[in-house]
Amino acid sequence: MSQKKSSEPTPLYFVGIDGGGTKCRAELYDTTGNLLGAGVAGAANIARNGDVARQSILDSVKAAIEHANLPPETLASTLACGGFAGANLPSASNALKQWQHPFHSFYFTSDLHTALYGAHDGANGAVLVIGTGSCAAALKDGELTQFGGHGFLLGDKGSGAWLGKQAVVHTLEAIDAIQPKGQLAEAVCDHYQAHSATALVDKLNQANPGVFGELCPIILELAHHAEPTAQALVKEGCEYLSAIARKAIQQSNGALVLAGGVAHALQPLLDSDVQAKLTSSTHGPEWGAIMLYQHGAFNQGANA
Q1: Distance CA 1, CA 94 (A)
Q2: Which of 26, 41, 55, 175 is the most exposed place for a label (fewest CB within 10 A)?
Q3: How many CA atoms lie within 13 A of 228 on its CB side?
Q4: pLDDT grade for 9, boundaries at 50, 70 and 90
Q5: Which CATH superfamily is domain 13-121+282-294 in?
Q6: Is the separation of the CB atoms in 102 and 233 below 8 Å?
Q7: Which pLDDT value is given to residue 19?
């Protein structure tokens, strides 16, 4: 972990950052913990696209500074700390360590770590993240254990992007007359304005997870109205989410906090024993990142 030289001025501001697969959110605080401003930018998965993630980090912090009515040069007086999707992967974290950032100093960990730390105020507990991706994690005596969260290509079951991808796979099979072409397949074709297999593959072959995640509200709405394929997808996803949540609860021996943009919609569909362990989050991941810094719990920093 590298810091600015001790001869340089101490930071005047702190910014906590939550960087996910779809958006990056920053909260700017003064040194006494007063929230001054917040900003949102694009995707910040450092494993998927480091250049895009670094730009999103900068854009979100700049937006928070602007929201606080502070000048742009505030950036150099700000200690930035955040949690980012993909930071658990050594190749991604090693690349981010080399970043010549413009902040006073910069510390980072995984988005799960900051979410857990903020949610339970640093105490033992579990978190289930259901957004563009999915993951569960446990914090016990300061040690983080992760379940799932293996990325869009290899995992993230039950997430918005996973649901969308499975719906597209079903639609392609329906177009090929392998599956019946019901409401879900029609809705997928209508959403992407692609009504042949070739058109659909051409549009989505290089698409990022967020593009597949666009289908999530449509799938949930169809499942609510008993469309059988949508119902089956949501059921399969929630069974998996309940399983990894259960593992995290057992590991932490604590309560469970839900996080992520799809969590509220899927909460009633999780297994009853998982729902019984739910509690409210104490703090958001942005403040969780700042708490990690205050408690000396970061073990990664970027070049000053």
Answers
A1: 11
A2: 55
A3: 4
A4: low
A5: ATPase, nucleotide binding domain (3.30.420.40)
A6: no
A7: 92
Q: Positive or negative CA dihedral for 263, 266, 267, 273?
A: negative
Q: Fold match between 13-121+282-294 and 160-275?
A: yes
Residue 116 near residue 288 (C-beta atoms within 8 A): yes
**How many other CB atoms sit within 10 Å of the CB of residue 247?**
18
3-state SS string for 16-34: EEEECCCCEEEEEEECCCC
- Residues 304, 135: Cα–Cα separation, whole Å: 31
Judge contact between 5 and 106, C-beta under 8 A: no
User: Rounded to whole angstroms, how far apart are CA atoms 149 and 161?
Assistant: 12
For residue 208, the model assigns a pLDDT of 87
Q: What is the pLDDT of residue 1?
A: 29
Q: Kindly state the tokens that stand for 36.
A: 């001054």
Q: Note the maximum CA span of the chain.
A: 70
Q: What is the pTM of this model?
A: 0.82
Query: Domain 160-275 is of which CATH architecture?
Result: 2-Layer Sandwich (3.30)
* H-helix or E-strand spanning residue 146: strand 143-147
**Which amino acid, 60?**
S
Give per-residue pLDDT as tens, 148-181: 988 888 889 999 999 999 999 999 999 999 988 8
Domain borders along the chain are 13-121+282-294, 160-275
* Amino acid making up residue 216: C
- Tokens standing for residue 171: 């639609």
Any idea which residue has 């994690």 for tokens? 137
